[in-house]
């Protein structure tokens, strides 16, 4: 799949690609330490891009925008007639770790908290003894200075990592990857929501809820105060755009 060949959901780029092909694309870039970035898209990200033209450009310039959420998978099937795989960040993250260990690709974890990073590193080393963790770093929870960004670039590049997992949350992590795509010698994957789950600090929705597109509801039950406003706005607007206003 060539860059910038994509489909759209409510006018926002989302790629039609199998789980296996997405995995192979990321690993091939990582093995060669080729700079690039992958966005893991759900309804929240799509609405952020619909509302913000500059963020929409971030997705347009990505190497891949993979469909994390079932509503996007369903939209791609309805729009383009493809049996689209759900390429969820929480599913592809451990598989990438496994393959990175097998194919000797150093990985770097960027974002979240020191506690989460410590737990992620411990679990990854337990599950994949041959994995090379090139580094971890939890930056300050604020806008980074130019000097701090340069330090992170140097940290990642000097580590030898070919695969950089970025967990700043949407849309911050996607914008950060876009702004560093020419200076970081690794493929970057925005995987924010997968970090606390893999670390064992949050539970993932049961499989039956995932299949019924209710994973967002499960997360809302866990964090109602933080997520209610976001989900009420993004989900309502998505349904309006998808079924009442525009048909793409």
TrEMBL record:
The keyword Transcription does not apply. Transmembrane segments: none annotated. It holds the Pfam family Glyco_tran_WecG. CDD domains: Glyco_transf_WecG_TagA. Keywords: Glycosyltransferase, Transferase. The keyword Transferase applies. InterPro entries: WecG_TagA_CpsF (IPR004629). This is WecB/TagA/CpsF family glycosyltransferase. The lineage of its organism: Bacteria, Pseudomonadati, Thermodesulfobacteriota, Desulfuromonadia, Geobacterales.
